[in-house]
Amino acid sequence: MMPLTVIFSVIRMAASQCSKTGMTPSEIVDTIMANYSRSEIPQPQPIPVQVEVTVQDIMELSVLSNSFSADIWFR
């Protein structure tokens, strides 16, 4: 429920700043994202995100370069 609240708050804020005529889609996105910062922690509370990872197959394993190739699923 929290992510929907955040999305609707941003849309409501942008709607008040955008005129109905004369704005391109790019300008609308710029207005919505004007105060966005990747380096700031969401306020008042961070949004919890749960991710599941499943390893389907390990195809290559290199001891020399300490690397491997794998098929994984994110859910």
Attribute tags:
disordered N terminus
Structural overview:
By secondary structure, this protein is an alpha+beta fold. It has one domain. The protein is built from two helices and two strands; from the N terminus they run ααββ. The chain has helices at residues 2-17, 25-32, and strands spanning 53-62, 67-74. The model is unreliable at 1-10 (pLDDT under 50).
Q: Tally the structural domains.
A: 1
**Which parts are unreliable, with pLDDT below 50 for 5 consecutive residues or more?**
1-10
Radius of gyration: 21 Å
Q: Main beta sheet, described?
A: 2 strands, antiparallel
Q: Could you give the order of the helices and strands? A: HHEE
Strand content: 15-25%
What is the strand arrangement across the widest sheet? 1-2
- Average pLDDT reading: 76
N- to C-terminal distance: 19 Å
In one word, what is the shape?
elongated
Count, helices: 2
Class by alpha and beta content: alpha+beta
Describe the structure concisely for a colleague.
Keywords: Signal. With 75 residues, the chain is an alpha+beta fold.
Fold blueprint:
Blueprint: H1 2-17, H2 25-32, E1 53-62, E2 67-74
Antiparallel strand pairs: 1-2
